[in-house]
Structures are given as C-alpha cells and as structure tokens.
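Chapter review: from sequence to fold.
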Amino acid sequence: MAFTSQSKVSGINITTIVSDSRKVVPGALFVAIAGFTMDGHKFVGDALAKGCAAAVVDKGRRIKSKDPHVPIVAVADTREALGYLAAEYHDHPAKKLKLIGITGTNGKTTTSYLLEAIVKQDGKETGVIGTVSYRFHDTEMEAPLTTPDPLALQGLFRQMVDNGITHVLMEVSSHALAQKRLHGVEYDVAMFVNLSRDHLDFHGSMAEYYESKKKLFTDHLKAGGKAVVFRTSCQDKTSGGKGRIIDWGERLGKDLLKLKSNKAAGKRFSLLTCGQDCGEVRAKKYSYGIDGIDCEITTPAGPAAIHSGLVGEFNLANILCAVGAGISLNIDITQIEKGIEAVAGIPGRLQRLAGKEGPFVFVDYAHTPDALENVLMALRKLAPTRLIVVFGCGGDRDTGKRVLMGEVAGRLADITLLTSDNPRNEQPESILQQIEVGMKNLSITRMRAEALLVENRKGYDVICSRKEAIDTAIYYGRKGDILLISGKGHETYQITKTGRQFFDDRLEAKKHLDVIRW
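The token string follows.
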C-alpha cells in the first residue's frame, strides 16, 4: 500500500540513523538520499523489511510498504534533513565547540596544521578533521573523505566534545558543500585560502566550483562570525592577452561585502583580508631558502616576525592565512608566532626527506596545474643544479588538467618522469599519453630516463611503474639536484582497477636514500 507523507511524527524510539539500507538495524531511522550513482529511495522497502523504525524521503516520492505502523516522513530535501537529524541525534555537539572551516583548492591541510599548532600554543584542546586524518588528543583515524558525511561528522563532534575538545579545525571540500553534507553546522571562523582548477569533472565550470566554495560563508558562517579571505594580489594581472586573471579571493571579498551591506539578508559577520602584498594581514618582508621561510608580517594586532621550517613561497600564503585565523580567534600575536614556528613540516606537503647524500628529495600532494606550478616555482627559486619531477594524474577525475600539468612540468622542470598516480578504473597508459601531450606541445624531447639523468639532458620519459620511476630518479640523481615526487603526498596506497594496494612515496624514496652511496 502507498503511505501518506507525514510532516510530523512523535513517540518513536530511534536507535541509530543511517542512509545506507545495508546498515539498517531494528529501530534505525533510514534517510533515503538520491545520490549521483544510486538512489536510496529504491531501497526504502529493504530498510523497512530490516526493521527500520521510520524512513525519511523526498516529497513527491511514492513509497510502498506492507507495514502501516512504520511512518514515512516526506521532506523538501533529504540531504539537508540528514544533517539536521544527525545533529539532533548527537545532541548538537557542534554548539559546544569553536569551529574553524578552511576551504580552497590547495593549502587547506598545511593551513590546518599551522592553525592547530597556534591554537594548541594558546592552551586550547584541538581536534582536526581533514585530508590526512581525523584526530584529537592521542586518537587518530584514517580520513576516507576530507569532509565526512553528516552522520560521521556529527559522531566525530560528539566524541570530541566528550573528550574535552574546545576547538575543531576542519578542511571543507567543495564536494561537501555542494552535496549539503554540512547542513546543521555553523562556523565561528570561515577561511578561504585560494581557488584554481580542480574537480571540474564534478562542478562543470570554475564559476560553479567557486559558488560551491562560497557556500561556506553564505550558508555556514555563524551570525557574528569571522571570514578570513586570502587575495592573490592587489595588482591587476593578465594572462597572455586573454584578459584579466581572476583573483577569486578578491571576488569573494566583494561578494561578502555586498552580503554584509544587504540588510534584507540579515547577515552579520566581520571580514579580514590576507595577502602577500595586500590585505590587513600581509608580508612586509620575507625570504626563502632550503631551510624555510623568514618573514615580517603586518597585522591589525601588531607586527609579527616568524621563522617557519616550511619551504616555498606558496607556503607564505598558508602562513598568512593561519595568522589571520589566529587573530580572528583573539589569540595573542606572540602565541601565533610560537605556534607557527613549532611546525617543522606537514605530512606529504613539500615534505623533505633526509638522506645521506645525493639529491634533495621532496614529496608533495600537488595534483592540480596550479599546485604543481607553485611547488616547482618554489623549488626552482632554491637554485638546484637540476630540478627533477616525478608525477602523474589520477584516473576518473578531471581529464582536462592532464595536458596542462604536462605543460607546467615541461616549462619548469629540467627532467620529468611521467608515472602512474591513482589510475582507478582507467588504463594508466592512457592517462600518461594525455599528460604527454602537454610535453609535446612544448617540443620537450622524450628520451630514456637513465640517459637524461646521466647525460644531463633536458627532457622527459614515461615510466608507468611508480616504484621504478622513483627508484630511477633517486639512483641517478646527483648532489645539488632537487627531486620532487608529486601527486600523492601523505597517501599510503595506490588505487587501480584491481583495488587498493599499499604504496608510500616517502617510504619508497627513503629506502633508496638510505642505501645509495655516491
């Protein structure tokens, strides 16, 4: 029989909430989500058969069941409802936390580590939810998603509150914002670090990608909250005669100011801008080297002088954002300085590996054209004898960036070894051929890797095996060279058609750095 949709139901004892019918147990509340590949509404019958206490569906769905005692509640949007239901089930733990959300294409993880150190330096108990892990105190969990689904997220909040955590730093992905995973969550501080090409297979365009990121500020910033926005530059820039380069931070700042001035919107918040050469938090003086960054920073809370062990000009942007967030949390500038200086490195983020001799080796997560360019430019400024890069592109992701990344490597590296990343359901060779087009566009010579490295030639090679590519680059690398192994960073696996296998760029590289003698 078809059930009449209900707007209110009371007197039901709910044992748990699930959105996967396979996880239904007696007494569960099943929330049917219309996903991108699977529609949960098709499995309401299965959930009812397993003994769910109630089901939540989208309005307009015709759901049939043999049990008239199990209510089916219709709502405007089950994705939104799931967030609020999860928060209610866990007794709204986020209300007891100071939440800081960080969004951007690159730099979220590094900024979260810097801010974690700052908040700890200020004596607060911190939790982190991000790409590398979910962690608090001595507890650390693998992160299946940068930003968890509502059920996992509210459960994490609950654990953190119960363990005395006061401040939670979250990396907020554009996917999570677009998929409404954060409904029921509001942030005290929202941060925008940058925006560049990525995830266009999901968003379709940069404009849509930006609109998803903007939701962190328009939909999830608390009344009276603080927005921290990084601007790329105060100077107008053009791209090869193709018009002005979009500074997405500038655009976001203008959009937020319009929102603030719109009394009908009723949005109250403060805005703090950061930038390398502009903004309220900006670098007055700075220098870079193989051992890190030294900078003098101007802030509304007074000047700051910082030495950071992080390498590369782009990390100055992450430092400025962390300083801005620290100020927004009313942390003393001295504590901010000490917190940043306590961070020696970030897992898989331009992470330098120690070796006996030979090349300087860095492992980084850069997997977008902009990120790869930033990292290579930063390493180029360290004046290596040769700059060598080993990288690939992930499968089942934005294919348009592959040629662009090939061109970036061709322009900035002396020697490039193209190799498999996480090919997932694609053929690795096909992905590499697409990257190779970028090298060919620049007329870069293809030659066997051994010949390139021994004869000191500029060019590239394709080595499908990631292990072999890393081994070759280190074996033939020389003292004074800088080798960048890029794309996977902190990851300890490689995903192929056959599943997930253990592989860690850092362990593979370190193995050879420890045994090779030059």
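Two observations follow directly from the output. Residues 351-515 form a domain with the Protein-Tyrosine Phosphatase; Chain A fold (CATH 3.90.190.20). The chain has 16 helices and 23 strands.
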